[in-house]
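Query structure, 700 tokens:
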């Protein structure tokens, strides 16, 4: 846990003289210095001395300046390379003296992708160190990263670097090849067994490979298009690795069955890592990196707890799983603390990640294979037990069948005897059933005939009742006419005759009262004609005088006497018979209905307003409906609602009206098997609705 080792120096001859190296560093928290300004005030800046080549500054937004003073100790100058690990650093600028003693700058880092500006094609940063001068040479490194700031440096002899790089690439190739082999093998198992745990394992290994390619620098080295996005890609890969390892643990341990509490916690951690994988591309890299460090520690501990609990409950396939997470938990826990800057590790953190990842993937694969072996063993035991149970069951069934056959034989003899008795009883029952069915048919026929008679009689009674109700209403109206309209002119005539008989000069009196007598006689005649018209309507209701007629033709004939009044009032009359052109009717009655409805609308129009009348026909319910709407003075239905269709009812003072028109409209409508309704409001006009239960006649 203590990292106080000096900077590593790699050379072909370990006993050869090594350069003397002094390292100091300065943290520029406000990021205010460029290189020229730094040189100008270098002596006044608080550079701290260091004797190691590994620095871990944790998550920091500062710019770190590293000052290296290198002095040659060998007689002959040897070309050296300064190697800086952690290729995901955003900025790694190298400053050195050129041959003309001027400062030169090499810019490297994530922001200078697609490939580093370095002398060799390599996954780490390489900078040439010229020690041709015997005096100490000064070099500066400017380091900045939006994630964890970790710097590991080493001096490598230039001629020896190719050999070192080859060994490292071989080790990395074996590492990646082993992971890819595990992935492909378990992917084939998934397609063979269709067990989802294998697919989650393959996704876990795939994201792990991607993570290793990024943090080791091989992704930007060989895949040019990922340059500039290594930090984001590393965080996404880390979240993906954590997400699928959690899902794999849930499915492998089947935590939903026996580990409800831990199952909920693992689900929460899986959701958190899944959301991190989705939003890491846009999130602040430092925040995303800190969160993934905490999630790694929390998830590792939770999964290890779940594995121990499953192993305690008898899940033997969890033993390698627990071992994998126990090993990885130590490395992950220390690595998380290392990335947070809380501790420093003497061993390279990337080595912990690589070794731990490979051991974990290998033990996971062994766990899956062990579970298959256990499943097969349990299956064989279950099959053996099933065969033994089947044999025992077959023996029991054989004995039971023998006993059953004996019992069945006894029961069969009894059944045959009972069957003969039942057959005789059935024959008797069949004969009785035939008689009952015949009686039932006769009774059903009689009931049907009786119901038909009752239904016909009921309809006749209902029609008769309706006729009687209408006749009773009409008799009341006729009685009103006789008692009021006829009695009044008769009494007037009798009174005049009595006056004439009492006068001594009848001729002169007759001339004086003759006009009054004539007027009374005309009134009596008018009432008698009205009565005759009403009787005629009643007679039409009892005879079949209906004939097919068109609304437009009947309407034109009905309002012809009103042409002068229509012109005088400049009235607008709109008709719409497009939906229903006509029906079976008594044309004279329909003409009279149109006449009275239009006449009322014209007589009782609103003063100062042009009369506007709408006539429309349409199909509704089981017949045809006519509406007549005007914009006249309207009627107060609360006051006059019961008198509107009464005989000789005048709701407005009009010397020309007798109060008989709407009564005639109602009677003529009912004579044609219809009914009439009214909707009105004072000052807003009136709407009459006539509904006839007749067949529909569509327009041609």
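Result returned for the query:
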């Amino acid at each position: 846990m203590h990292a106080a080792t000096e900077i590593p120096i790699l050379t072909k001859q370990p006993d050869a003289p090594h350069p003397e190296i002094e390292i100091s560093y300065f943290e520029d928290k406000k990021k205010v210095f460029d290189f020229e300004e730094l040189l100008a005030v270098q002596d006044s800046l608080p550079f701290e001395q260091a004797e190691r080549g590994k620095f871990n500054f944790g998550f920091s937004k500062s710019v770190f300046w590293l000052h290296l003073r290198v002095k040659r100790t060998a007689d002959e100058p040897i070309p050296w390379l300064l190697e800086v690990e952690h290729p995901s650093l955003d900025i790694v600028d190298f400053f050195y003296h050129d041959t003309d003693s001027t400062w030169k700058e090499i810019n490297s880092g994530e922001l200078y992708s697609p490939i580093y500006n370095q002398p060799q094609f390599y996954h780490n940063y390489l900078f040439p160190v010229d020690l041709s001068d015997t005096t100490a040479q000064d070099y500066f490194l400017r380091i900045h990263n939006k994630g964890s700031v970790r710097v590991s440096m080493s001096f490598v002899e230039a001629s020896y670097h190719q050999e070192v790089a080859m060994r490292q690439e071989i080790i990395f190739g074996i590492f990646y090849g082993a992971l890819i082999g595990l992935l492909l093998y378990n992917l084939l198992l998934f397609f063979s067994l269709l067990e989802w745990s294998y697919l989650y394992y393959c996704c876990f290994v795939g994201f792990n490979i991607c993570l290793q390619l990024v943090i080791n620098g091989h992704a930007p080295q060989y895949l040019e298009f990922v340059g500039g996005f290594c930090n984001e890609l590393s965080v996404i890969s880390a979240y993906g690795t954590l997400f699928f390892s959690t899902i794999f643990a849930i499915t492998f341990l089947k935590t939903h069955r026996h580990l409800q509490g831990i199952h909920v916690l693992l689900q929460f951690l899986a959701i958190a890592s899944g959301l991190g994988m989705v939003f890491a591309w846009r999130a602040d890299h430092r925040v995303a990196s800190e969160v993934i460090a905490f999630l790694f520690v929390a998830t590792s501990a939770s999964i290890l707890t779940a594995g121990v609990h499953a192993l305690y409950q008898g899940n033997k396939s969890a033993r390698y799983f627990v071992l994998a997470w126990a090993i990885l938990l130590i490395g992950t826990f220390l690595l998380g603390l290392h990335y947070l800057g809380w501790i420093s590790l003497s061993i390279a953190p990337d080595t912990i990640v690589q070794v731990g990842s490979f051991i974990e993937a290998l033990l996971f694969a062994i766990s899956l294979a062990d579970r298959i072996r256990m499943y097969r063993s349990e299956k064989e035991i279950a099959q053996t037990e099933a065969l033994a149970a089947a044999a025992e069951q077959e023996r029991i069934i054989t004995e039971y069948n023998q006993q059953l056959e004996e019992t069945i034989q006894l029961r069969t003899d009894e059944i045959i005897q009972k069957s003969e008795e039942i057959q005789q009883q059935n024959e008797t029952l069949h004969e009785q059933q035939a008689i009952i069915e015949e009686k039932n048919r006769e009774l059903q026929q009689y009931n049907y005939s009786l119901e038909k008679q009752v239904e016909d009689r009921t309809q006749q009674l209902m029609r008769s009742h309706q006729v009687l109700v209408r006749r009773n209403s009409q008799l009341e109206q006729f009685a009103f006419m006789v008692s009021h309209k006829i009695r009044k002119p008769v009494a007037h005539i009798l009174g005049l005759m009595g006056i004439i008989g009492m006068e001594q000069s009848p001729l002169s009196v007759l001339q004086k009262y003759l006009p009054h007598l004539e007027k009374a006689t005309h009134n009596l005649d008018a009432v008698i004609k009205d009565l005759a018209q009403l009787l005629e309507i009643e007679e039409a209701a009892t005879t079949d005088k209906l004939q097919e007629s068109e609304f437009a033709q009947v309407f034109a004939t009905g309002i012809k006497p009103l042409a002068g009044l229509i012109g005088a009032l400049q009235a607008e009359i709109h008709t719409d018979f497009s939906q229903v052109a006509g029906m079976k009717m008594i044309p004279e009655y329909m003409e009279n209905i149109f006449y009275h409805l239009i006449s009322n609308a014209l007589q009782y129009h609103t003063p100062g307003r042009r009369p506007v009348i709408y006539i429309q026909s349409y199909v509704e319910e089981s017949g045809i409906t006519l509406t007549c709407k005007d914009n006249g003075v309207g009627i107060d239905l609360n006051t006059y609602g019961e008198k509107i269709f009464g005989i000789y009812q005048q709701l407005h003072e009009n010397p020309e009206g007798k109060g008989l028109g709407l009564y005639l409209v109602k009677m003529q409508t009912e004579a044609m098997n219809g009914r009439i309704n009214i909707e009105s409001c004072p000052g807003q006009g009136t709407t009459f609705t006539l509904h006839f239960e007749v067949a529909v006649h569509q327009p041609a």
